[in-house]
Write a structure and sequence with these properties.
single chain; 180 residues; mainly alpha; Recoverin, domain 1; two-stranded antiparallel sheet; 2 strands; 44% helix; rod-shaped; Tubulin polymerization-promoting protein family member 2; cytoplasm; TPP/p25; EF-hand-dom_pair; tubulin binding
Length: 180
């Protein structure tokens, strides 16, 4: 097999990239079923006609050890060898395996770092404190900065006077006048 156009190292590198995808504890030596399916999808091994996601799952289950939930690189190669003739029906087994390696070599998970912050128009409207009404308006000062607890909690008046009493704070003055 010296005439192979894709090196085993290139395929192994892709295997490792997908093996650690989404799992901070992964070493890259073993791949779970979810990441195997992702590799097959991202590298177009799954074409929707000859090879489906179900085929990939079945072959994954077939090559892994009975109690294991992951496959090694050797088992991965075995899985690809089984998938190749299904994916490339008109090719010999060796050519099919080579073409499947070509699909995978040098690839990594497709959606790494794609998540962007959605900045929809509605978000700006919803977070503009100047447009707030009712009790929500009380929670922010004129600049739009939150007022913390004072904006959320009714702070009781502990002065000892009833709410609408106008003569609040005049008791001492009256007592002075009375005693004088």
């Amino acid at each position: 097999m010296a005439d192979r156009s894709v090196s085993r190292a290139e395929v192994e590198s892709s295997f490792q990239k997908f093996a650690v995808h989404g799992d901070s504890k992964a070493t890259g030596k073993e791949m779970n079923g979810k990441n195997f399916a992702k590799l097959c999808k991202d590298c177009h091994v799954i074409d929707g006609k000859n090879v489906t996601a179900t085929d990939v799952d079945i072959i994954f289950s077939k090559v892994k050890a009975k109690s294991a939930r992951v496959i090694t690189f050797e088992q991965f190669n075995q899985a690809l060898t089984e998938l190749a003739p299904k994916r490339f029906k008109d090719k010999s087994k060796e050519e099919a395996v080579q073409q499947i390696y070509d699909l995978i070599a040098g690839k990594g998970p497709a959606n790494v770092g794609i998540t962007k912050v959605a900045k929809a128009g509605a978000v700006d409207r919803l977070t503009d404190t100047s447009k707030y009404t009712g009790s929500h308006k009380e929670r922010f000062d004129d600049s739009g900065k939150g007022r913390g607890k004072t904006g959320r909690v009714d702070i009781p008046d502990t002065s000892g006077y009833v709410g609408a009493y106008k003569g609040s704070g005049t008791y001492e003055d009256k007592m002075k006048e009375h005693n004088a």
